[in-house]
Each structure stands twice: as C-alpha cells, then as structure tokens.
Amino acid sequence: MNSENMNFVTLTNGRAANLESIPTLEFKDFSRAVIDKVATGGRVAAMFGAASHQPAVTHIYAIIADDSQNRLCVTRTSVEGCEFESLTPQCPQVHMFEREIAEQFGLKPIGHPWLKPVRYHRSWTNRDAWGRSAGKAIQPAVCDFYRVEGDEVHEVAVGPVHAGVIEPGHFRFQCHGEKVLHLEIALGYQHRGVEHAIAGGPDKRSIHYAETLAGDTTVAHSTAYCQAVEALSRCQKTAHAQMLRGVALELERLANHIGDLGAMAGDVGFLPTSSFCGRIRGDVLNMTALLCGSRFGRGMIRPGGVGFNINDMLAEELLKRLTAVEKDTTIAINMLWDTSSVMARFEDTGSLPKNIAVELGVVGPAARAAGLTQDVRQDQPSGIFRFIHVPVSTYDTGDVFARAFVRWLEIQHSFEFIREQLDTLPAGEISVPLNPLTPNSIAVTLGEAWRGEVCHAAITDEHGRFARYKVVDPSFHNWPALAYVLRNQEISDFPLCNKSFNLSYCGNDL
Amino acid sequence: MFKTILARLQQGHRTMKYPDGPAPALSDRFRGRPAVDANICQNGCRLCLEACPTDAIKISDNEVNIDLGRCLFCGECAKACPAGAIRLTGDYRLAVRNREDLKITANRQTIKLAAALEGKMKKLFGRSLKLRQVSAGGCNACEADTNVLNTLAWDLGRFGIQFVASPRHADGLLITGPVTQNMKLALKKTYDAVGEPKIVIVVGTCAISGGPYIGHEQVNDGIADIVPVDLYIPGCPPHPLTILDGLLRLLDRKTPELFDNSDKVRQS
Description:
The complex is a heterodimer.
Chain A: H1 2-7, E1 9-11, E2 15-18, E3 24-25, H2 27-39, E4 43-51, E5 57-66, E6 71-80, E7 83-85, H3 95-105, E8 108-110, E9 153-158, E10 170-176, E11 179-186, H4 194-198, H5 206-211, H6 218-233, H7 239-267, H8 271-292, E12 301-302, E13 305-306, H9 312-338, H10 340-346, H11 354-360, H12 364-369, H13 376-379, H14 400-423, E14 441-449, E15 452-460, E16 466-472, H15 474-485, H16 494-501, H17 505-509
Parallel strand pairs in A: 3-6, 7-8
Antiparallel strand pairs in A: 1-6, 2-14, 4-5, 5-6, 9-10, 10-11, 12-13, 14-15, 15-16
Helix pairs in contact in A: 6-7, 7-8, 7-14, 7-16, 8-9, 9-14, 14-16
Chain B: H1 2-11, E1 34-36, H2 47-51, E2 57-60, E3 63-67, H3 76-80, E4 86-88, E5 103-105, H4 119-125, E6 129-135, H5 141-147, E7 161-163, E8 172-176, H6 181-193, E9 199-203, H7 205-209, E10 231-233, H8 240-250
C-alpha cells in the first residue's frame, strides 16, 4: 500500500492537481507500477507522451482508473533518447497507446508486438519511430499487413471509401472461403490534427474542437473538455447547469442507441424496426435542437455551465415528446426480440469473451455486454451523476445480441433519467464566470458517452495555457475488439458486427 | 407477422409533406443565416470579428462581411455584439452555386440561392440523381444529417435522389469534411471514377473552407480547387432541411418560397 502511494497520485474525476504532486518514476518502476495496477483490476484510461523542457526528454503519463475505489491513479516517467521498453507484451491494454506515443513523439517501444502507425502523420518531434525520412510523404495504410498464407486463403481489402454514407477506414480481411481468419483495421484517414491544435489554448476555437472530436458524441466530449477547464479554473458549476448537461448527455445516448438498433435491424434485413428507429432517432435529435438549436448539441455545453436555459414551457414540451418517443421506441425495438429471424442472426455472432474484453481494455456497452460492470456514471461519477444514480446495464454473452440488448436497457434508463430531471427543475444560473487556469497543473475528466468512456487530460504550462491536451475517444479502446470478434466469423457478418460496435473513425483519428 | 402489422399501424405514415406542404417546424433556437443590421452596427468595434472562431467575419469599407463558407453558425458574433446588430435568423435556405455567393454584408442580407442545373445536365439528372458520398475528414455530423434524408421521414428516394455504393454507378459526388491530407488521393480517385458528365456537391463548412480546422497542415482547407464544385451547402452541420432544400433547388424542384421580414419561412 505504501509503495503504491509513492507510485501514483490519486485524483478524482474532474479535479485538478499540481503537476509536482505527480511522482516521476524511473522507467522500470513506472512499467512495473502500471502493469501491476492493471493486473489487480485497474484500467488504462489513458497513456500518453508529453514534451518536457528538454527536447531529448519526453514524459510519459499513465492514467489508470481504479473503478472499485472510484479514483484515478496518475503517474509518469521520463524517457531520454528515442526508445523505451514496451509494456504491451505484459499489458495489452496499452497496445494502441504505445503505437500512438511512437507516432506522435518518435519514441520506439522496444518489444512491441505490432508496431505500426495509428494515424499516419509526421511525428511532433524531429524523431521518427520508423526511421522515415522527413522528405518522404506518409501514405495512409501503405504498409505491411498481417497475412495468412496457404491454399485457398485469400485477402479482401475494403475502403477507405465505403459503400454507405460513412467515414473512411481500411479493412483487410484474411479469409478462407467465407470464413475470416483475421481482420486488421487501418485508420487515420480522418486525422485533422486536433490534439496538436488544442495545445496552446484555451482559445476561441477550443470548444469547437471539443464539439467536433466526434460529431455524434458532441455533448460527452464538450462536457469532458469543459470539466477540465472548470477544474483548472477552480469554478463551481450550478446544480441547474449540471442537470441540463445530464439531460443533453442522455438525449445523445438515446438518439444514438435508437439509431444503432435500427441500423442493426437493417443489417439483418428486418426493415420495420430499421425504418421506425431511423425516424425516431431524428425525433430525439430534434429534442436536443429544442434545447440548444442544434441537433447534435452544438452550443449547449460551455465552460462554466451551459449555453441555453430551459423554462417550464420547454420542459413540458420535451416531456410530451419524450412520452411519444418512448412509446414508439418500445414498440419498434421489442419487435426485434420477438422475431426469430433477427434473433438467429444476433445470437452467437461476434462474441467477445469477458477475459478478452478486460485484456483489450474495452469500454462502454461493448464491455457491459461482455459482462463487465463498468460505467463511468457509476464508477467515476461527476456532475449530476454524483447525485443521481443510473443503474449499470449488463449482459453476459458478449455477442451482437448482448450489445443490442444492453443498448435497449440503457435506453430505458435514459428515458427515466430525463423524465426525472425535467420533472424537478432546480433553480439557478446556467453559467458561472471562469478564472484563469491554474499553471503547472493537470486535470483529468471522464464521462460515459453513449459509445463508452471519454477521457480528457489537460496539462497546463507555467502561464496557464494547455501544454498538452490528451483526448481518448471510446473508439480508441474498442477498435481492436471489433477486429478480434471477426475471427472465425463469416465475412458476411462483418457489417452486423461492425454496427454492433458502431465505432467512430474521427474520434479515433482526431 | 401480426405484431409487425400492428406496429406498422401504430407508427403511422410519417413522411413529411415538404416540399409540397410547409417545411417541418424548426426549433426557435435554430441558428440559420446570419443577418447584420447596418443601422445599429457600431462600425469598427470589431468585437464580432474577434469572437469568431474561424475568422468568417471581415470588416471592409466599414462594413461587416460574413462568409457563410467559413461560418460555424455558433452565434458567438451575435453574443459579442454590444448593439445587437448581428443575429442568426431562422432561415435554413443556404445552398448556393458559387463560392462568392456565400458572402453576406449589411447591404446584401440575403444570399443568392442556388439556381437549377441547366440544359443537358438538368435533363440528365433532374429526375434521377445517383450520388456517391465521400467523407474526407470532419466529425461525421454532416454525414449523419445527410444520411437522415434516407429515413422515411424525409424519404429522399421520392425525388429520384439516391446514394449508391460505387462511383461507377454515380452521377456525382457529395463530399463532406475538410479534405484531410490522408483522404486527398482517395477523393481524387473516386472523382475520376465517376463517369462524365458529373456534378459535385459539398456539404458542410469543413468541405467548403476547412471549418474548425482551417489552417491545419493536416487538412486541405476544404475542397478548394481539388475538383470543380456545383453546389455549396454550408452549416456545421447543415440541417437536413438545408441539404434537401439545396438538392431540390439544383434539380429545379418546387420548394416553399415566401420569405417575409420576420425571417420566418412560410408556405407560398
């Protein structure tokens, strides 16, 4: 216990700490501490590099969520030179984080089993982990892929431009007949340099970066951003603002979960639910637009509170619409469980075993569908969720059905939550003024977005500007899980498996 | 089967009457085309310009100019204006044929809305337009609200407009996103794969100018001169109604017109 105290500083979600309070461990102690912490139930919420005052020295921070204790354990180390010993062989949860550090800071994790770029961009330093020359263009997904060879084994390549109205990504399947032996996913096509651009802020564009990290997760990401700014600015939001943030977040969850269940119905050719849910999703987006003028919640969450107030008349209108939407949704979605042709496709497809979900660090409905009782609203609550408890919805089969059913359970809880909040409107200001950000500090914020855990970590410099701003979208944790569940599946089940995760390309690519 | 029929009856017929009937009601807080009141603008205070996250506002000849091709419709300028000279109206109609038409000034409050395709192009595409969508960066909100047009509430298919799976099947492209460096090549290849004659529609502020990512070295600041553009639909993201209005204008379909001083769009 004592040595653990020395290895980590304990934070709670949405609280800032002085940078000096974070221990800087020797690399081998850092490595040991992170691996041990994860082995005893910790979860890597983020691991990232940050520049130090010396160009040759890079800090690596690790933020481990200790869900059983409702706390965040933060530690760091310094790496001098251009390499460090990879933790991935002993701690697969950091697999993508180490690839990201390699790409952003040109530090090579020695012993990493699959060291490839994440987003295909030039490093932020003058080092390059792959020794690419500065003059040579970096082409996305132009690299070796994992390859299976043998009689009748073939490769299927899909993307970056897909058949539907969706984001770009490249999928490489190794198949034997219809059976998928291995899938490798190469992303980075959506990379627009957001993390790098937020550094130096906050400025007038920062909130818009937060709102567009992943357009369908605008509320969760902008809330995480605002909480980080508020923590660093030592400002206390009003209960009224926190309630409105909670309502906006649950509306976002409703719209996306309902849309996902419709899309999954569409992928198995069950058109009634597909058609109904597509329309109902729009009804929910329009409720968000009633709040703030934007169907995606743009303008709703602002540092210090919220951008728009709600009055009795608006609350009444929202409640009226909520009742109608709830009725339509219940009928549309319950048809899925009553239809044997749907259940035949959903059950036992794309199963994610619980132990693999833990090893990969999967978050959100995908983790809960695999039997993990893990939800930021319960484990690391902030804002309204410190006062109102939303039950965690889990299932244990880890298949497409489980991911669909967990969404349905969450939909019902969100309806209940929104109704309760709108019924009991607290009075108060919607926004409080901000102070300048505390210099040389770190704030970590977590939120349970509809897709899973959103994590933001903000580190300020001596002037109170962002020296480093780290964003982890839930998709960053979950893309490897999608690749995993495709093993030994029919390739024709890929769209269904994909939809059951519905991961974000832009949230991953930033 | 019986349950399915019952559910179908319960859900009812939900396709909207627009464009033959009125447009669906938008939120009172909807932020559409900005308007500048020259009479009360304290020229030269520059507060709106400083508040704008994407430098969409310029002041030239003592007059406020707003470039809707850069505007995120966030309303920060309206909040910053001490005189209340800028406001975001409820006008959702924003699609234009030329990039320059997206610029509004105090003297030119309305924008020159998109004219229909002409001659052979209208004859070819007016009743059947197949589009390939290319997402080239951005946040997926434009894609989501484009996709919404395929739901039964909007039922894009009734206008003969359809999204197809291959550029080889398409009459043109609908492009979203600031065009990341990593998508530039794929976008060009997709454009080249569409047979002539073809049209290009860009949806969202990102695709027009780069949006929140203007100036990032990782993006191309929108479509620029990568491919020629036939229709610009601004917004962050544009409302589905804005996108549909633009598509219908391009194809010379009737849309509800009348527009009065209170900035409310009514049925003609």
